[in-house]
Every structure is written in C-alpha cells, then in structure tokens.
Amino acid sequence: MPKNAGYGFLATLALTISFSGIILIFLLTFYAQTTTQWNPSWRKPLIGTIFALICLSGILAVFFPEKCSKPFHIRIKEKTVYEAKNSNSSRASVHFEGHHPNCGKFKAHVITANGLVLCAACTGLLAGGLIALPLNVFYFFFGLDFLGQFGLWNVLFGQVGVVLGFFQFKLSGFVRSIFNTVFVIACFFVLAGVDSLAENVLIDLYLTGLIVFWIYTRIILSRWDHSRICCTCTAFCELK
User: Fold this and answer.
1) Alpha helices, DSSP H, located in 84-200
2) Nearest in space to 100 (alpha carbons), one of 79, 58, 71
3) Total structural domains within the chain
4) What single-letter DSSP state applies at residue 199?
5) Domain enclosing residue 79, as ranges
6) Looking at residue 13, what is its pLDDT?
7) Is residue 142, in this structure, part of any structural domain at all?
8) pLDDT for 99
9) In whole angstroms, what is the distance from residue 224 CA to residue 228 CA?
C-alpha cells in the first residue's frame, strides 16, 4: 500500500510548533506590558492590512476547490498503480463532490444544502473569513476599540478556538463547518486581544506570521486525514 507521503510527521511537527507559538504569544503579551511599547501611528493600518490579505486569500481559495483536490488525484493515482498489481482489490468508480471523492469514505467531510454538495471545512472557513474581515476593518481601521477592551479574554477565547480548529477533522458535517468558522474568527480575536494589550508592532507582526502558520498546520492536518483515509482503503479507484 502506498505510503502516507510523510503527512503524519509533518502534522506532528506543525502541531508542536503551533502549540509552542500559542504558549509563547501568551507569555509575550504579558512581557510586553512591562516594557516600552512600540506603537507607531502606522501599526494598526499595517497589521489590519496584513490580516485582511490573509482573510481575502482564504476566501478566494475557497472558490478554487480543484486546487484542493490535487492531493486526492495524486493519492488515487498512486493507489491505482499499486492496486493494479493486486488482483484481490475491488474496483470502484470515483468522481468528486465538494472536491471530495464520492466513494462514501468522505461523508463526514461534506454537507448538503439544497441538493448541492459542499465541502464542510471550506464552507466554514468562508463563513469565518466573511465575519472576521469586517471585524478586522472595524478594529484596525475605524478605531472601534471596544473589540479589544477584553484583551485577555479575547486572547483566551481565540486560543481555544484555534485549538478546536486543529481537531475539526474528528468531527463531521455542519459541526465541522462551525469549528472551521470559529477557527478563523478566533485568529482575529487573538490578534485583537494581543494588539490591545501589548500595543507592540513587532509582537503583532510575529502573531500575523504565526496565524499564517496556524492555517498551514490546519491544511497539513486535513491532508494527513485525507491521505490516511485513502491509504486504509482497499478499493481500486478509477477517476471519472
């Protein structure tokens, strides 16, 4: 059977770095309050613009699901070469719905709305991006600081939401969508909370980079889960 393409190792490594970052950003926030703040006038517009670009990139990615389907195509092709050498393998025709194979192994990964099959994770990420984007604009550009008044609670809520987002692959259907929505919104609340407490552009920049890595971690976890499902399947898949 084809190997899992190293996704297991990458997922473990990415999770370790992500959790370390969650702890470090919490410590840095309190440390920054005891030191001289670096709060130039361009801090909020810069950080708001970076986070807005992150949200917009995620929103646009949702509308190009064929890009997300590539790992499936690669995995199925690998299985085809392997299974073709094993006469005991069953044969199954596969096409994609919500950019997931319709083989029945990915029922937990999709939701159905008005007869349309959608990726549960992407639907949640889209909803989260559409909510986080205006919140970001209100806080960083319009000066609505009430979003940052509960700085510590924002950070704590955000960190919990990020962690839940990492383990959304254990859920199914609309619950998976909700956890992905919370994941994106949680990233904003961590950023707003840390920004309001530290008021330090360097910490903000570090956190925006960490958010990008959190997104990468979530992608790696998803790919590991997809690859694991295909690797444990004994069907001989034919793409349609």
Assistant:
1) 120-140, 151-166, 173-198
2) 71
3) 1
4) -
5) 7-239
6) 92
7) yes
8) 73
9) 6
**For 182-229, how does the pLDDT look when each residue is reduced to its tens digit (9 = 90+)?**
999 999 999 999 988 888 898 999 999 999 999 999 989 888 888 887
Q: Which two tokens stand for residue 5?
A: 């393409």
Q: What is the pLDDT of residue 106?
A: 80
Closest CA to 22 of 133, 146, 186: 186
Q: What is the pLDDT of residues 78-136, one digit of tens each?
A: 444 444 445 455 555 667 766 777 777 788 788 887 778 888 888 999 999 999 999 99
Joined tokens for residue 124: 């949640």
Classify burial at 187, counting beta carbons within 10 Å of its beta carbon; exposed 0-12, middle 13-18, buried 19 or more.
buried
Q: How far is CA 105 from CA 41, 80, 94, 204, 208, in A?
A: 52, 17, 11, 41, 35
| Within-domain flag for 1 | no
Q: Is residue 154 a part of any domain in this protein?
A: yes
Residue 67: its H or E element:
helix 65-83
